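Usage

Read records sequentially. Each one opens with the input sequence:
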Amino acid sequence: MQVLQRDFLPANLKPLLQEHAIEGCVAVQADPSEAETEFLISQANEFEFIKGVVGWVNLTDPHLEARLAHYKSYPVVKGFRHIVQAEPDGYMVNPRFIQGIKHVNKFGLTYDILIKEHQLKETLEFIKQLPPQKLVIDHIAKPVIGNTLSQWKKYITAIAQHEHVYCKLSGMVTEANWHSWRPENFTPYLDIVLNAFGSNRVMYGSDWPVCLLAAQYAQQLKIVEDYIQSFSDSEKQAIMGENAIRFYNL
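and closes with the structure output:
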C-alpha cells in the first residue's frame, strides 16, 4: 500500500484528466467522516473540474435529516456513500440503515453501494426494501478477478433487474493480481455487466488513486475504452460520461 501513503489532491489529478480529454469528475469519499465531506466540498469550490461530490454522513444518525438538509444546501453534493465492504454481515438490512437511505432519497440525493462480492445477496435484499431511488454499485461489486463467476453473475443479473440501479465500471484492476493482470482478464466481467445493465446504466470510473496499486491511470482507462471500441458513438458517450451526468444530476 506504500504507493498510496501520500496526499492525492485535485492538482495531481488535473493533468491526467487533461491528457485524456476528460472534462470533469465526481469526487467520492474515502474516509467515513463529515470532515472529509466538507474538505471535498472545499476542493470542488476551488477546482471547477470537480462536478460533484459523493460524501459521507452517518446514515444511522437520529439527526440524519438535519445533516442531509445541511448538505443539500451545497449544490455540488450529489449523494453519499458508506464503506459497507468493511461492515459485518447484516449491516445493510438493519432497519435504521435502510431508513437512512430512504431519507437520502427524500432529499433527492444518490447512494453509492460499496460492497464486496460476498455481500451481493444482502445487497439484493437491501434494494428490495427501498423505493425506486438512485443507487449505483461501485467497482462492479469487487469480484475476485479470476475466481468462478457463477455466484457473482447470478446476483449482478438479479440486481440489474431493478431499473433504478446503475453499475460503475471501476475498481477492477485492484481485484486482480496487481502485478500480472492482463486486459482480457476483465472481459468476462464486462460482458456480464453490460449484458445485465445495458449501456444506459453503466458508467466509467477510475478509482484513482486507489487504482495505482495495480495500474497507472492510462492503463485502467484503456481497459474500458478498448472494451467499448466497437460500441456506437452514443453508447460510448453514455458510458464515458452521459450516464454519470444523468445519475448524479451534474
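Summary fields computed downstream for this record:
- The domain at 2-248 is CATH 3.20.20.140 (TIM Barrel).
- The chain has a mean pLDDT of 98.
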